[in-house]
């Protein structure tokens, strides 16, 4: 959600002081995950991750109702998305780390020597020593003005109504674009918009819109928005597609990386990547809610557990013109979220097919995950397959580690979350009903083919 806070303009004005080279065929960047926890107790770790996933889902589904200031969940370094890349902005380039996020669109970094991050005293993170971008040291830093078309990317066509010193009847306006405020599931950030140079190996992108954040809550790193809006990395860079491979989350500090691959420029038509299954992106809702317009909607047709097609309300599998219902893909959500009307029949099918195992209700209550099962006394436990079938027949048959996880000794749990509110089929819902999270995407090659408007995937070891 973006709003105006004009009191920041004068402060930023004091703090801040073409053409691109030929496009390479691809740009490959290391994609790291690094999650640090105060406790090594897996019960607390999974309790934390399930709470994070649920809070993120609530924000994506209904951003106007769920302010991050109302959420009180411990947040550890990069555990809110888990996968980071390094990008360099400015002249000369200044490298910084960013969380790669397909659930939002603005690209922003901690900015100026006065950057303040509230509630950022995480494990091994000193809030006073967060790396920041210094506009004074970049000859290419320029503030975005109210009449710059890129200001309207954030505020829409009525942007001049937010620029109080601009006379709509004249073209002479030197006022800076109003400060942005972006809310995430567990944090927020505010700052001013800059035009900067983004530097890649063998490629630079000039006049790139980027957020210079001077105050954030629970955001120790910048965020690289890979959503579908005009201000996102794919849109500004003119990517025909991008792809990533998320390494398995081991909940430690192992310096293992996957890949983020960018494909700039126009492609060669309808060329598919070998070995990938594809499903078309659904049409984004034409609504005023910019968050919904930024999502990657896909058409999930069936959820299959152990060969059994689970019956869920059809209205939840299809996204409406209002953005409600349907499925989105989000790299910033850890565990896949399902609305209760979808989750309950899925969970019950697991319970039915695993009836020989004892329910571990105590672990369920501690972690917020369910169903959980005690495997003691069972040497060769067999679990039902979990398959997501999409429009066009593409099937994502998840590896066991992507949906059943050992929590405590002999106890395993389903790593999918839901809201506790049971919603009947006749009641009004808001936002996507299913959010495909990064835990279920790990060790998959995931492709966002923007040129051909489709989502592709295949199993692949990412390390």
UniProtKB/TrEMBL annotation:
Keywords: Aspartyl protease, Glycoprotein, Hydrolase, Protease, Signal. Residues 83-458 form the Peptidase A1 domain. The keyword Signal applies. The keyword Signal applies. One of its GO terms (biological process) is proteolysis. This is Peptidase A1 domain-containing protein. Transmembrane segments: none annotated. Belongs to the peptidase A1 family. One of its GO terms (cellular component) is extracellular region. PROSITE patterns: PEPTIDASE_A1. The lineage of its organism: Eukaryota, Viridiplantae, Streptophyta, Embryophyta, Tracheophyta. GO terms for molecular function: aspartic-type endopeptidase activity.
């Amino acid at each position: 959600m973006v709003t105006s806070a004009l009191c920041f303009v004068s402060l930023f004005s004091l703090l801040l002081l073409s053409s691109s080279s030929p496009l390479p065929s691809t740009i490959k960047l290391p994609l790291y995950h690094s999650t640090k926890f105060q406790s090594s107790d897996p019960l607390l770790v999974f309790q934390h991750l399930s709470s994070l996933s649920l809070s993120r889902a609530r924000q994506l589904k209904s951003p106007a109702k769920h302010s991050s200031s109302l959420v009180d969940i411990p947040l550890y370094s990069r555990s809110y998305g888990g996968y980071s890349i390094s990008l360099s902005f400015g002249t000369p380039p200044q490298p910084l780390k960013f969380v790669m996020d397909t659930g939002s669109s603005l690209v922003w970094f901690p900015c100026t020597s006065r950057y303040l991050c509230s509630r950022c005293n995480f494990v091994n993170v000193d809030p006073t020593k967060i790396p920041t971008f210094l506009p004074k040291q970049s000859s290419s830093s320029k503030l975005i003005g109210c009449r710059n078309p890129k200001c309207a990317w954030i505020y829409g066509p009525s942007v001049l109504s937010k620029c109080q010193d601009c006379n709509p009847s004249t073209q002479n306006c030197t006022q800076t674009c109003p400060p942005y405020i972006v809310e995430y599931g567990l944090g927020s950030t505010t700052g001013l918009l800059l035009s900067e140079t983004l530097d890649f190996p063998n490629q630079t992108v000039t006049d790139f819109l980027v957020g210079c954040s001077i105050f954030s809550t629970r955001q120790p790193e910048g965020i690289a928005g890979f959503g579908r809006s005009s201000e996102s990395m794919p849109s500004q860079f003119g990517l025909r597609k991008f792809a990533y491979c998320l390494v398995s989350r081991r909940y430690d500090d192992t310096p293992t990386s996957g890949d983020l691959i960018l494909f700039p420029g126009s492609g060669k038509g309808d060329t598919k990547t070998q070995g990938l299954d594809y499903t078309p992106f659904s049409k984004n809702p034409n609504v005023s809610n910019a968050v919904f317009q930024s999502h990657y909607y896909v058409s999930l047709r069936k959820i299959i557990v152990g060969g059994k097609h689970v019956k869920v309300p059809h209205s939840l599998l299809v996204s409406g013109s209002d953005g409600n219902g349907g499925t989105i893909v989000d790299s910033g959500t850890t565990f896949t979220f399902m609305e209760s009307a979808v989750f309950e029949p899925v969970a019950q099918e697991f319970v039915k097919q695993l009836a020989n195992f004892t329910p571990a209700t105590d672990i369920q209550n501690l972690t917020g995950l369910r169903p959980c099962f005690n495997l003691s006394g069972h040497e060769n436990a067999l679990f039902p397959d979990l398959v997501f079938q999409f429009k066009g027949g593409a099937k994502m048959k998840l590896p066991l580690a992507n949906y059943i996880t050992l929590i405590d000794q002999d106890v395993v749990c389903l790593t999918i979350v839901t809201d506790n509110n049971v919603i009947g089929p006749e009641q009004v819902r808001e936002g996507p009903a299913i959010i495909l999270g990064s835990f279920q995407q790990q060790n998959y090659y995931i492709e966002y083919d923007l040129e051909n408007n489709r989502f592709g995937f295949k199993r692949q070891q990412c390390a």
